[in-house]
Amino acid sequence: MCTGKCSKVIAISLYVLAGVSIICNIIAFFPDWSTKYAKLDREENGARITDEVKYMGGVIGGGIMCLIPAIHIHLTSSNGCCANRCGMFLSIGFAAAGVVGALYSLATSALGLSNGPVCLFTETPTSVPGWGRPFLNNNGSYLGNSDLWTKCIEPEGVVEFNLGLFATLLVVASLELVLCGIQIVNGLFGCICGTCGGREVR
């Protein structure tokens, strides 16, 4: 496959993945599909939204920092002004920025999974419920024991909600990392050999 065509496949894939990443991060602000928790958190009535959601790893890292490289990589794959060795060289730098963004999203997602959600919970059946992170210090062991998830009283189903979204962000960030890594190698070949795009500007 020509380096230009390879770049086009990578760019289109990154568009989709960046979109999924942004959407998942935005949805994560609304546990139980309600806006009240985000509102209470914003009004500083105590933490109601998981910290890793507010780090915006899906919007900034897996979203914007991968979307911008995708646009340049897509231009590089075309037969326009960027389809040349210089364009392929620049795509290496953009892809490297995408790697950084994907790593940021990957790290925040992994932390979100490991630390668990913010919820209203009780330490014991007789204790007074309070807001916090009941799974913060168990190194993610709660993930394999769904019986522990019932500790969270509110928002309803918040453990499954966070688990699904952070797991999706983790997978998306991993794919973005691989694709940006491939583009770095592809860019090196394109810089040396050209894009196979017909009449190439040097």
From TrEMBL:
It is found in: Membrane. It is a multi-pass membrane protein. The chain crosses the membrane at residues 12-30, 55-75, 87-107, 165-192. InterPro entries: L6_membrane (IPR008661). One of its GO terms (cellular component) is membrane. The keyword Transmembrane applies. Keywords: Membrane, Transmembrane, Transmembrane helix. PANTHER family: SI:CH211-137I24.10, TRANSMEMBRANE 4 L6 FAMILY MEMBER 1-RELATED. Belongs to the L6 tetraspanin family. This is Transmembrane 4 L six family member 21b. The lineage of its organism: Eukaryota, Metazoa, Chordata, Craniata, Vertebrata. The gene is LOC109896417.
